[in-house]
TrEMBL record:
<dbReference type="InterPro" id="IPR007657">
    <property type="entry name" value="Glycosyltransferase_61"/>
</dbReference>
<dbReference type="GO" id="GO:0016763">
    <property type="term" value="F:pentosyltransferase activity"/>
</dbReference>
<comment type="pathway">
    <text>Glycan metabolism.</text>
</comment>
<keyword id="KW-0808">Transferase</keyword>
<keyword id="KW-0328">Glycosyltransferase</keyword>
<dbReference type="GO" id="GO:0000139">
    <property type="term" value="C:Golgi membrane"/>
</dbReference>
<dbReference type="InterPro" id="IPR049625">
    <property type="entry name" value="Glyco_transf_61_cat"/>
</dbReference>
<protein>
    <recommendedName>
        <fullName>Glycosyltransferase 61 catalytic domain-containing protein</fullName>
    </recommendedName>
</protein>
<keyword id="KW-0325">Glycoprotein</keyword>
<dbReference type="Pfam" id="PF04577">
    <property type="entry name" value="Glyco_transf_61"/>
</dbReference>
<feature type="domain" description="Glycosyltransferase 61 catalytic">
    <location>
        <begin position="307"/>
        <end position="406"/>
    </location>
</feature>
């Protein structure tokens, strides 16, 4: 007769641990099934399912934190392996370290572990919610159920600049329906009734701040907007705050490529728009740039340029040393002209010298009233584009691939500024970059100040006085007269950099 052995003191603990492990594995299996079945399309996930997902995550977490303090050999090895798989990604535009496991995290994926609003970089903040969402834009309020607490946000990618942010409308995210707030809060929020229902997500952004300056149009608004919304495949409703009619009309072709729906002027619209999901604020990666590892579809600035080609019906994909057909083996030079500061004093002489060097020459000065589609086609026809540092060089987004951009850098030690604004973005856009650094002999500053003046002898000491001093001395008061011999030599170098036909 076999006698049953008495249970040891450790057996209940083993059985308890086994039960917790089994519970955790079952939870993870169910979680994996629900995520695969419902979360591939984020717009179909209902609040009850979200609560279930959150419960399962908490259950799994509880199982883990109630394990014995001393890890086993197996768990230590697993932790070490996970640590090896973690990739820490940091760059100068991001405040916090971002961690990635097994590939990029989808920027727009709803993540219940994150707060509703959080900084995505030093310059941008993003808010995201799923549930019953009601946008009362005329009163700058967005009612959300469920929502843990009230939030305030300004949807413009220049958080570090208080001057710009002063011109951006602030929106308040208001919880209602018992989906959040303090347990002791007896105040009942009654949201407005929906007057227009949408089946696609809403995306709220602003054209306030410095929008209207072409560089800031792209750096602060359009490039971040593309990076944050391209993966929607057009199934997204844009809500535009601080709208300027002329600005919205100017970029309408681009908006039509990103959304199948007319842009809503959220400031002046009298409707209460209801959505199953909303994202507020675009994510800034870097100046005029996109980090493919941080976009849901791995998009880059080259993809953004392709979208612009479709939007403005640009024909040329690649520049050529012989120029476009019917130009008699002459590449086209586009000189970006300026009327105010930093203008070419000898612009006409430059054009004649370029023509003598066998370039097909065009001179153009874009402004806020320029017909965008026509100007985009002009830039796209160029093989070389040249201009003094300024917003007009932003039109390089329309250049064909492997075209040459020649940035003329005013006197005054401004290479650091020209690098971050145009040199680095040009590389990402598949544009060959050249720099023409203006000598003192080519600068109008020598006519304003004596030879031994502090501004001429010690520009880097002027930099220590701050941006206002730099701008006033070296940007606002300076024009340039290029040395034609040096200018012609630069054009010959640019021609050599163009691809052969």
């Amino acid at each position: 007769m076999t006698m049953k052995q008495p249970r040891g003191r450790q057996e209940p603990r083993r059985m308890g641990n086994a039960a917790m492990v089994v519970t955790m594995l079952v939870s993870l299996c169910v979680l994996t099934y629900i995520k695969a079945r419902y979360c591939s399309n984020p717009f179909r996930t209902s609040p009850p399912l979200l609560l279930l997902l959150q419960f399962l995550l908490l259950l799994s977490y509880s199982c883990l934190i109630h394990q014995p303090d001393r890890p086993s050999t197996d768990s230590t090895a697993t932790a070490a392996k996970a640590a090896e798989e973690l990739e820490v990604v940091v760059d100068e535009d991001y405040d916090s370290t971002r961690y990635k496991l097994s590939g990029p995290i989808g920027e727009e994926d709803f993540d219940p572990s994150r707060p509703t609003c959080y900084n995505t970089s030093k310059r941008s903040e993003r808010c995201a919610a799923v549930g019953d969402i009601r946008v009362d834009g005329n009163h700058s309020k967005i009612y959300i159920n469920p929502l843990s607490r009230e939030w305030k946000t300004k949807p413009y990618a220049r958080l570090h600049d208080p001057v710009a942010m002063d011109d951006v409308r602030e929106f308040t995210l208001v919880p209602f329906g018992g989906g959040g707030g303090s347990p002791n809060d007896t105040t009942t929020v009654v949201p407005p009734l929906c007057t227009r229902n949408h089946s696609v997500p809403g995306f709220l952004f602003s054209s306030g701040g410095f929008a209207g300056n072409l560089y800031h149009d792209y750096a602060d608004v359009l490039v971040p907007l593309f990076a944050s919304t391209h993966h929607f495949g057009g199934e997204v409703q844009f809500l535009l705050a601080d709208i300027k009619d002329w600005w919205a009309d100017k970029f309408k072709p681009l908006f039509r490529q990103l959304s199948r729906y007319d842009v809503i002027d959220v400031n002046n619209d009298q409707e209460v728009h209801c959505f199953p999901r909303i994202v507020i604020g675009s994510t800034f990666h870097r100046a005029m740039g996109i980090d493919a590892s941080r976009t849901p579809g791995g998009e880059t600035v080259v993809d953004f340029k392709r979208l612009l080609r479709r939007a403005f019906r640009l024909e040329r994909a690649v520049a050529s040393r012989s120029g476009a057909p019917r130009r008699k083996d002459r590449p086209r030079l586009l000189i970006i002209s300026r009327k105010s500061s930093r203008r070419f004093v000898n612009e006409r002489a430059m054009a004649r010298a370029a023509a003598a060097a066998k370039f097909d020459v065009r001179i153009a000065e874009p402004d806020n009233h320029t017909d965008m589609p026509n100007f985009a086609r002009l830039v796209n026809s160029a093989d070389v584009m040249m201009g003094v540092h300024g917003a007009g060089l932003t039109n390089m987004v329309f250049l064909p691939s492997r075209a040459v951009l020649v940035q003329v850098v005013p006197f005054g030690g401004l290479e650091w500024l020209t690098r971050v604004t145009f040199k680095d973005p040009a590389r990402d856009m598949d544009v060959t970059y050249m720099e023409y650094n203006v000598s003192l002999e080519e600068s109008s500053l020598r006519d304003l100040y004596p030879e031994d003046h502090f501004y001429l002898k010690h520009p880097y000491d002027v930099h220590k006085k701050g941006w206002d001093a730099i701008k006033t001395v070296y940007l606002d008061k300076q024009n340039v007269r290029l040395n034609l011999t040096r200018f012609t030599r630069t054009l010959e170098q640019a021609r050599d950099l163009l691809p052969s036909p």
